Amino acid sequence: MVLPPDEDDSDSGPSVVNEKSVHEPEEFDPDSLGPSIPEAPSAPEPPRDGSASEISGLFWKLVVVFNVALFGLSVGPMIIYFEGQTDRGVQVFLVGAIAFAYGYFRYRQFMNDREDEDDGDEDTDGDDSDESVSPGTEPTEHNG
Fold it and tell me: How many angstroms separate the CA atoms of 22 and 126, rounded?
């Protein structure tokens, strides 16, 4: 066990606690631990044609429509069961069902329009031949 030097013992050197190894750096560098942190890529610029605002607007409209649908489809049966008000519960349930049907219709309509736009972009290359089909076989579509 090493004891700190006494005040009256002037010829003793520094204690073991204060000694540094010759291999120890002067100051600790925390950046030397582990791999370097990569930089995140910058986000791409949104298109300037207004389609992003149209998509965003439809998204938020559908969020509201599906929230109404969820509310109606869940609260309607609760009104019937807990309150015993069959007419009111059926009305609330039907509002939810109609809102869900409308939201689903608008969502499918958007997805079909978007697929049609994507198909239109692919057909502009001018190459209508299908070289991957061998003679005597019919081309098949793989949608999965």
Answer: 73
Apex CA 11: angle with CA 24 and CA 8, to 5°?
A: 115
Alpha helices (H) in the chain, listed in sequence order = 51-78, 86-122
pLDDT 10s digits, 43-95: 888 667 777 788 889 999 999 999 999 999 999 999 999 999 999 999 999 99
Q: Is 87 left (phi over 0), alpha (psi -120 to 50) or beta?
A: alpha
pTM, two decimals, is: 0.52
What is the rounded distance in angstroms from the CA atom of residue 116 to the CA atom of residue 82?
A: 48
pLDDT in tens, 34-53: 788 888 899 888 667 777 78
Cβ–Cβ contacts within 10 Å for residue 58, how many?
A: 14
